[in-house]
Amino acid sequence: MKKLLTIILAFLLINSIIIQAEPENYDTVILNGNIYDPLAGVYLKNYNIGISSGKIKKITRDEINGSNVIDAKDKLVLPGFIDALSDAKNEEYNQLRLKDGVTTTVIKSDLPFDKYILQEENQISYINRILIYDFTPIFNPNASKEEKEKFESDLNERLDEGYAGLYFKPTPNSKFPNLKNIPVSYPIYLDFFEFEDSKIIPWLDKFKNDQKNDRKIYIVNSNFHFSSMDNIIGYSNDEENVFMGGYPFSYTNIVPSEISDEKFNKLINQISINQNEFNIFRLSAENKNMTDTLSVIGLIDEKIINKALTCNSFVSESFNRFDAPRPSTAGINTFMGRLFLTFDKELPEQKDFYNTVFSQSTILRNIFGNRSFLQNKGCIETGADADLIIVNTENISQFSSMTEEIHPSTGIDSVIRNGYIIYDQGNYSTIAPKAYYLKDEIPSFIDESYTISTKGKKKRKFELLNYEGKHYVRAHELADYLNIKYEENGGTFYFGGIIRLEIGNRDFTIGTNKLSLKNSPHLIDGSYVIDINDLDDIFESYYNIEIGDETLNFSADKMSKLLDKKEDNGSSINVDLNPVSIFISYLMAAGLIFLFVFLLNKKRTKTKKGE
């Protein structure tokens, strides 16, 4: 009977383990990808992503299942690019931009919001759109007081309808529009197409000083002004709240070497090569057969391109590149061109490459505000919109569209928008829902104010993240408050040099002891975060923790002294253990040895008695 009972119990135990180990299911999963999240600056190697209801639900090394599976082994997973400005309406053009990794774009209009959407309803299928209001047609510098009031009223009305920002194309003699009664959270795009190079920065400087606020300013089309490009990049880097867009990378084209001599000669005549300094680079037949592909630097010289690549206030855009009879891929592949120019297979640390991804993915979030509808875009984190691209870094290239055939850029294997696979291995989806206009989207998480206290320390207000009904504390903020050493490294993070946790993994370790959490840590809002209900398990040996409705109370145990402390300047040090701590450690070790010997002795005694 005992034997049968043992077998049944063993079966139930094994069965429960199997049930617990069954992988979680999602709508779509990306497996074994090398993930780069620009918001947190985190590189996660060989991680899986679970996507459901258009959101990233889990980032983990655990096994997961999905109705749709993408194998991203040895490939890079990046946030979908946000095109800073586009004039394109043709869907063939937007198909090609998907191959450039664009999942969201900014569009300007001078119509009321609803009227524009009704007019363009049938034109949107691939790429989500953000609308900015072009007030150039209604701006009258000589307006009467009543007309000025109506102008302000119209702007506020458009913004209330759903426009995300403003657009203005001034002339060198334009007076400044009065935007003082327009909420400062709305950015303004300034298009200096009508300006001579030397007039741009003086006008911009006066405009900025006239505003006397922190409104974000985005400079449009500045790279038409070749001689001042360098100065404008410098200005946007030096001035807070000033950013710039452009597409100098579109002029760094790769010409296929198999092109015929006749086509090649025609190509020479079609490309303007540094109009201001023609001798910097000369495209000739001698260059044609040098390598499999030929790099052509045109219009903007290589030094300025390199400066733009590493500038944290610069973003690529494909604005006004729809002039050709067919889509001009030279203007589309600005994004892949940017990756191509910064990726170096020989370098183990791709600093410039990741800097490029960071600026392209996060500047638009910054321009439109950290709590805007872009809250959930431009990052790869729990709760973020599943707008993702899978990049094959072995295949990044950029082609010229100036030959007879259209050659879109390559390197993008898959594009996921709002959780749907829109493009995969050369095929476009015919069943995915249409893209949409971004307007008043509710963020996936909200901040809630909590008070954290511990004996002998001042209470501190913390902003805890509320995501799907659970409250999370930012790990680095907690460590800072407790004054313990904190480290992060590729998805793994440590408290006090002893406690080791990992993104997406419920298992954690304290020293050599392996333990388990109720909920795995996540990456949210650029931070590693922990469910507050797991704090008791994480710090069980070091702190007693009480969780109230809006409070977290920590009471330090003597063992808390074993955690490495950090110095006042933020650097970490190891703590010299005092005699009391050492005595407690030896006492605990002796107790464990005594218990082990006692139990072993008891077993031997029973064996001798024949039990």
UniProtKB/TrEMBL annotation:
Gene3D superfamilies (UniProt xref): Urease, subunit C, domain 1
Keyword Transmembrane helix: yes
Highest taxon, organism lineage: Bacteria
Keyword vocabulary terms for this entry: Membrane, Signal, Transmembrane, Transmembrane helix
Residues annotated as transmembrane: 580-600
Gene Ontology molecular functions: hydrolase activity, acting on carbon-nitrogen (but not peptide) bonds
Signal peptide bounds: 1-21
PANTHER family according to UniProt: COLLAPSIN RESPONSE MEDIATOR PROTEIN, HYDRANTOINASE/DIHYDROPYRIMIDINASE FAMILY MEMBER
Name by which UniProt lists this protein: Amidohydrolase family protein
Species: Ezakiella coagulans
